[in-house]
Design brief:
heterodimer, A: six-stranded mixed sheet, five-stranded antiparallel sheet, B: mainly alpha
Chain lengths: 360, 261
Amino acid sequence: MSSSVSITLTQCSRTFAGGNTALQPLDLHVEAGETLVLLGPSGCGKTTTLRIISGLESPDKGGRVQFGKRDVTALPIEKRDVGMVFQNYALFPNMSVADNIAYGLKIQRLPRAEIEQRLDDVMRMVDLQGFGERRIDALSGGQRQRVALARAIAVRPKVLLFDEPLAALDAKLRDRLRIEIGQLLRELGTTAVYVTHDQDEAMALGDRIAVMQAGRIAQLGSPQEIYHQPANAFVADFIGAVNCLEVITTRADGGLAVHGGELVAPHLTGVSTVYCRPEDIQVVPAAQADIRGKVVQSIFLGQTQRLMVDTGGAAPLQVEASSRQRYSHDAIISLALPAHVLFHPDRPTPSVRTQEVVNG
Amino acid sequence: MKSRLRFTLQLSFTLLVCLFMIVPVAMSVVAGLTENYFLGLESGLTLRWVNEVWQLYADTILLSIQLALACLLITVVIGVPAAYGLLRSRRRWANAIEELLLLPVAVPGLATALALLLAYGSYREFRSSWLFILVGHVLFTLPFMVRAVLAVMQTAKLPQLEEAAASLGANFRQRFFGVVIPNSMSGILAGALMVVTLSIGEFNITWMLHTPLTKTLPVGLADSYASMRLEVGSAYTLIFLVMVVPLLVAIQWAGKLTRRH
């Protein structure tokens, strides 16, 4: 497999000619062989960051880009030895599938035999055997994406860059390709930076995720850290759904009075809002209730259902429940919110309860 | 009932207009093949006049072809990079340049010719060579090439393709010839056909710039109508049509290719 390098961005910022600051000065380090996902809403600066890493854009004065120990800031993209997969694939319409994939290899002037060999290898990896002579306009979206992928990895780049590659595909195809890309990245072991606005994609593919907002990194961490220990309200709300419960009063014994009931959370004394994920709230018999409320809406999602529960607070609570149970409109419902599922970005959470599966 | 009547009326009107334009041309063709125009078709059909045209004016026909091909070469070499430059440039003066390019087309050919005479007329060698006419032709046909190529370039999403090629290690020259040109081919083809057709038929500028030794087909045509029998002039027109009509058909076909993008 190709040798991979680490990527280091030092104080890279980018302000465009019209005055729009796409990126505030940014420091970022990607380990060799790691897949880092840049996640965020439109305009957060993730694509700009990717393009600065690729060499298609240069950081403003003072910014530095390094691959390993080598300073590549002044190098244009054609000299950086990267492989890039674009959102709209950017396949060459005047060439066949095989010619597209082999394009980079021909530029490198590799011997014919080796080009053939690599073509075979790569087309097998992306499951496109036998497609060599097809024209680009005869391919489906998923097939085009695979050609774009094959083209980028055929040159054995030091760094792989993905610019929202699955955004143009339908949901089912996205799901499937996401898994394939994940396997591919693991198999190749190349350092990869992947830009997306889809959090499911981010959590499935990333070794680490950088959640970005308005030109800054809001949080950098593993998918588990980002999801269970969001560093601020933006991250908490951007990843998955989150409930914010306003704390009305704090009792002497540590109990937090909220709309609809009372919560026990010793680690959250003094906070004004308590956060909780919909899937962590349990529907329980009345005797075990921490909170009670009225079901105002139930949204069937196939696998689960989302209940909107009015507890008297500003916004209804979102609760994820089994889809087989029917709740009638205005039914009173009892919910349990144990301490370990409650969090606040500013407070360290007690370690997440996970069960380790032991072999054997 | 009413729409059928309207359809018939519209069709008849269209046919009449077509006839109005085509009949003169057809009459000219027939005149070129008739033994004696004033006696009409009864005098018989003959290729005598066509032969005579060829004897007298073969060199003008050849010069027209030579000019058209040279014009094509120059407009491709100048026009394709120019179109690319206009595509990539985001500055405001790019629009100004595009408009300046159109000037020789909008301005009467006589004025363009006069301008050339003023600027370069004093260079004896240049003035009396066919290159002088070539300059006029290039000025007139360049915008057609640039526009045709630019139109296709704009729909081909070239910037993205170039980024992809660059990411795979291609330098500017490799990108230009391996990605940009092949994907602009239909525009280049459409432009080429336009340029050749316009150059062969160009009269206004050429008339002012020609010398007895550098006559093109249209100039010879004017000559023959002025000084020879009507039949000779008509035979000359026939030859011109035989050269140009296939080109016009090819332009239509190339236009369909361009629209497919």
